[in-house]
Amino acid sequence: MIGISDPWIVTAYVLCILSALACIIYGLLNWNKGAGDESSQMAEEARWEEAETKINETL
Amino acid sequence: MLGSIIAFLVYLFILTYLGYLGYKHTKNTADYLVGGRQIHPLIMALSYGATFISTSAIIGFGGAAGTLGMGLLWLTFLNIFVGIFIAFVIFGKRTRKMGHNLDAHTFPELLGNRFQSKFIQGFAGIIIFLFMPIYAAAVLKGGTDFIQSHFGIAYEISLLFFAAVVALYVWMGGLKGVMYTDAFQGIIMFGAMIFLLIFAYNKLGGVGTAHEQLGALYQNADVQPQIEKLVKGGFRGWTSMPALGTPIWWSLVTTIVMGVGIGVLAQPQLVVRFMTVKSNRELNRAVLSGGIFIIMMTGVAFVVGALSNVFFFNETGKIAIAAAGGNDKIIPAFIKTFVPGWFGIIFFLALIAAAMSTLSSQFHAMGTAMGRDFYQKSLGKKGNTILITRTSMLLAIILSVVLAFLANKLDASMQIIATGTALFFGLCAASFLPAYLSALYVRNISTKAVVAGMIAGFSVGIFCIFFVHEKEAASLQLCNLLFGKTSIVKDTGLAKLALIDPIIFSFPASVLVTTIGYFVSKNKNSESHINNCFNGI
Prior knowledge:
The complex is a heterodimer.
Chain A: H1 7-29, H2 38-57
Chain B: H1 2-25, H2 29-38, H3 41-52, H4 55-68, H5 73-101, H6 107-114, H7 118-151, H8 155-171, H9 179-203, H10 207-217, H11 228-232, H12 247-263, H13 268-275, H14 280-316, H15 320-324, H16 330-338, H17 341-378, H18 385-407, H19 416-441, H20 447-468, H21 470-476, H22 478-483, H23 503-520, H24 527-533
Helix pairs in contact in B: 1-9, 1-17, 3-9, 3-14, 4-7, 4-14, 4-19, 5-12, 5-14, 6-7, 7-8, 7-16, 7-17, 7-18, 7-19, 8-17, 8-18, 9-14, 9-17, 10-14, 12-19, 14-16, 17-18, 19-20, 19-23, 20-21, 20-23
């Protein structure tokens, strides 16, 4: 169908498309999941980000 | 040429303007966090893509597909399944949380803090500092090969120009965290590759017809003499896998597919990326965008790389590697010869974008590996960290440029960029992956077990690179100097081992030693520390 006779290459070609589709489906199904508690996450990230900024200032 | 210069200047202006906009809107940490949360998912998606893909993937591995064929699509599959799905879902979420729990800002620091070991942090830092320049050199060579081919400028001058542009970008702050800049680069890369795919298939009469023409090329009487050497090595055409167990099969499957496909999980600059993500929701969304982006980047580069043989043969009577004058020149020569001139400029900008986003994160990783991980944390020194970090970064840039310069002296028929990239990825997998996985998933593993596994993986990997795997050992010359042959197993009953990539030995060695260590040594890290590491996981 796609003009390739070696089943190993056809498999790779199809798996590339299927795995990309799987990523799309996973992303869509979980699009709004995992946001968590924004306020506690913000506080945690603020601490981490502050230290990160200090490191970056040394570069 | 004038058009290219104008386009390049416009591109730099837009980058600077977007960078300025980003900084203006993020005056403090809180602004940054809010900005990060409110950013449009599409912008987020494109910015991720730009940091994933480099010139190494497009030029180096695309060229490898031009020589070895569509078997490289197995790497695209692993890039998507392992490099995106497993990396984000299995590793990313825990890395993000644990990184924050332990206040880790680099990959060595994550491992060092998790196992309360200065040695681990220093050892990982040294490995990154010493060996990442090989990967950075591969990325530099990809861009340089394109500039040389497209604009007809000598390799050395092209390299200096390319390195200067990248250094300027890094000096401007690497524009780390400025989503709009990354997204702009992502748009260019994505658009360029879509055009390339449609162009190639359309010119050859559609998907099926294009593949059929490529498959038929192998049987063509005029092609046979050109691929004689490749056929002896196991090559069976561009739409077929090489013959099982032949040198080309081992090279394709163990070095290119496995080395890079698995090694991506333990890439220091990508691990850091997980820690800068705002929440697990962003990681979930990134799986979607990453999947699409990778198939459009490496998938397209590998398909077009292989199909370029039909274009070159129809035009010149030569296969791609012969017409282009080297494996790494295939994609640049294809763009220059067959694609409209205006697209060459877009593609040039896409490559610059791909290289800059990757190189800036590499130089960041190398600088902090030496300054923060080794000098400050592992050796426990307090003063001069800024000086050491900046000097290390400068050294890393110089070393990468020198290696990229030397790489051009190697045999052009070799997959130089792909091999250099795979070498570093393989070494990372062997040295870091079992430790990284243990850090995230095995609560009661001892520090000793992890240290032993890291040392075993690294040692076996280095030994194979210098003394067993002929592809590298022959170029490095040490084996020849000591034993008078290009691999210690050459002319022995184990000669086949010289064809197998080091990762096939080093990674299992690391896993085995870590596992044995898990059963024989007692975990001495306190329960409260472990609870802190896994807090919220």
